[in-house]
Amino acid sequence: MGIGGYPEEVSHFLRSHGLEVGDRVKLRLDSGLVLEGVVMPRYSPSTRPVLVLKLRNGYNVGVRIQEIRSVDKVERVTQESPGAPVPLVEELSIAEDKRVALIGTGGTIASRVDYETGAVKPSLSQEELVLSVPEAFQYARIDVEELYSILSEDMKPGMWARIAEEAARKLESGYDGVVIAHGTDTMGYTAAALSFAFHKGLPGPIALTGAQRSSDRPSSDAAFNLTAAVLVASRAPFAEVTVVMHGETGDSYALAHRGVRVRKMHTSRRDAFQSINALPLAKVYPQDGRIEVIDPSHRPRGGGLVLENGFDERVALVKHFPGATGEIIEMLLDKGFHGIVVEGTGFGHIASDAIGAVRRATEMGVPVVITSQTLFGRVNLNVYSNGRRLLEAGAIPVEDMLPETAYAKLSWVLARTRDLGEVRRLMTTSLAGEISWRHNLRLYPRWRHSA
Amino acid sequence: MPELDYRALGLKVGLEIHQQLATREKLFCACPAELGEEEHDEFERRLRPTRSELGDVDVAALFEWRRGRSYLYEAPTMHSCLVEADEEPPHPINREAVAIALAIALAAGSWIPGEVYVMRKVVIDGSNTSGFQRTAIVALGGEVDAAGKRVPIETIVVEEDASRKMGEEGRRVRYRLDRLGIPLIEIATGPVIETPEEAREVALAIGRLLRLTGRVRRGLGTIRQDLNVSIRGGAKTEIKGVQRLDLIPKAVHYEVLRQVRLLEIRDELRARGVSREDVLSMQPVDVTDLFRSTKSKVVRRSLGKGGRVLALRLPQFKGLLGRELMPGRRFGTELADYARFWAGVGGLFHSDELPKYGITGDEVEAVYKALGADPGRDAFVLVADEEEKARRALEVVKERAAKALEGVPEETRAANPDGTTRFLRPRPGSARMYPETDIPPLEVDEELVRMAEEIKPEPVEAKMRRLVEEYGLSRELAEQVIEDVRLDLIEMLISRYHGELPASVIASLFTVTLRGLRGEGVDIEAISDDVLEELVDMIARGEVAKEAAEEILKKAAEEPGKGARAIARELGLGRVTREEAERIVEEIIKENIDKVREKGERARGLIMGRAMAKLRGRIEGKIVAQIVEEKLREALRG
Ligand SMILES: [Zn+2]
């Protein structure tokens, strides 16, 4: 790629006319038409010999360079200096009785759009937050700290530990709660990881939140979610690790989900996050400051802080599929992995000829944890003979725990102990509400069966 | 309408024609591109003003947001999906829609870019769930023949239509998502139009060009014209949403009139020696106490809710606020529009219209006194509302009044049904537009150009020749067919029944029968293409005579959804054989035998009338006449 993301042919054209991205030009085309506009960078990669021009009416068009007969006039456009930002509210009212720390890890909770290129610049600064989400301050004074600025999919267990450490520091220094801005794709994993790190003691809520529509759009859910998260962090009665996101497609209420029970269930909807095999902790109304607790069995605020930090990065999460043999598990063992979480079929099964690999893992002291790819319901290895053989090979079924939660948990457990017996005991004990023993009929969503 | 010399005034009009395209799917999703009245889900959202790199925000949007404006969306289950609900990114742009627009571009000789870029145009009135309208230029330049000249085309754009506004419920606006995403083509002409009538003719010509593709939607609301109007010394006014062609000349005329009058007001103010500073230095005065026992209901209601009455003096404006700019709209109305828009007040009173509305002459006098104003030279404006809103309203009124010294402000206005216009919003400065990064640019490849070539409308002359030479229509009838909104349907039917039914029968069904019905006030738009197709089929098969068409269509307009055959059955319009017709005529003659004997041959008219009353539409009139002739002769002989 050459200048402005253009292929060599276009770069050469630009160079030979002494042009740069951002220049105002007049192009005379073969048809006689004269186009005046600003040379834009490409935002999508292409090998096509097309130059992108922003016309004076604001539209972009792609001009084939072989159609350009002459470049009539060149003028460098000087960047307009940012004017004084207009605040969204006339007067910022801050609730001084509560303090919330906002830790940024990435995503675009607060950002500005460049109207020229359409590029969105995430900028999670104190100043930016005041300007773009002033209503969040009606519930607490918010202090912003940007820890990471990474894409959701680039999150790693090592970073969970940094985030936990930072959150602990904030809570220790007297904040009422912590909000963590996070990309949505792996937010559920981070929430589960933090839940285990803090399961022995957390004085105030940790609310993870993000946006399904980036904050450069008028319809963004970022401000709604962030305000709801600040409300939870500052005023919820529970001291739990939660994910706080839209509760339904409209801007009515958000849900606070228990970190070990939440899963992103949709690629794009605002209400993608749902609690699986459990009810959410609370309904949250960011517009009028209400929190309706749904699950009363929560840890109250005000307890001590106990952080058991550290995650094992040599844990794998694999899915059984028709045709899968023991090969994948064997490979992981050969690569020296410390633990494996399997998403089995149905009750938690894997193919008969893969069971040997599980036995070998157990013999090597590598735990194999069984969850189900159905997500809803409880694994059970007693119903069919293959299940019983899997048990006998040493597999650890973990009840109704989500596969992603089991993954984060095993990573956390293996950083404490490599003793297989102890790993088994910890994995099958509910530490942070990740296992429950009773599902009533309502815990399964009702799908529609008519158009 | 008062006479105006438009050319001398330097009138310049440019048109933006928006027309829905008849594609199978919407522009950015797989929903059908049509309205739907089925059951819907509902959700409520708010839209936030976003900030650009330059740090600015859309003030109008900001104001709406601060007022807590929310939007309630109806999502019909068959005509909207996650894309319209802003719950899924848009799909790649609909190639069919682009091809139709490219076809127009080819016909107009426009330049077609190598890549089409979809942009986001910020629109925060809730009509787009995303807060922006997706829009793309597919061609630039070119020209069309209209009103006897070559009219330059500036841009050809494809964009998504907005949601349908269903109403307002307090601070909530209700929209329906079926219309959102229906593809629109927007054709913008250069500002070369010099008279109101010419504007209509150019709109007509472009509408015809669009219809000639056979790929545009018809019916109310499927075409909208925006007009950019300016006169020398005035300003460019954008008039939005003129739906009827015959309203165009009126809207242009009234706008010219408005600008002329605003310039007169400016000159008058200058002559009176008023300066901007004089106006801007005025401060609102709280006159609530003067209205404690007022008879004005509006004021009393506001005071009852804890509101205040504020007044602003407009120095030496006496008589100008009451000056009519266009029928029913005075300069005071313009001030009220601004106050409503920027401050959200219900309205205002101005001294040129008082005493009235329960406000007495004594109260007017008292206000003049409180303002220290001269009742012989000054004017004032009164607002009764919450204090903050009232203050803001008067601030806005003051600024607008000061602008009167400069002439005509740049505005976007909305057309009223009578062709007058009202203030909608200030004209946006630089377009708030940025790339839609969720949609990759579309390469205009050979396949797309081939698709466009197929749709490209044939020249009017060629079409005319075909209709006359191939199908035997008279030139006059062919001309009417080409002007008809249902051109595509007529052509299809003429070609389908070629050799079975004369083209002239099909053509006159539309150009004579339907137009006649419209003249009688029948809502012919309610008659679906399906009904017309079925009716032509019935005529072709001889199930009904063509004379039955009028009655069937009248009924079809009253009961949309009912088929032509079902209507014919209900009306008893089944065809009769010649033998049955003969029996009916014999019966009539027998009933009237005395008169027949008395009048002889001259009774023909009477018998014919009675027979047609029973037989119209069931057998050709010509045959009835023959039978009457025969039977009458027999009766007289016998
Ligand atoms: Zn759709």
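^ zinc ion complex. Chain B touches chain A through 63 residues (CB under 8 Å). Residues 248 and 429 of chain B are 25 Å apart (CA to CA).
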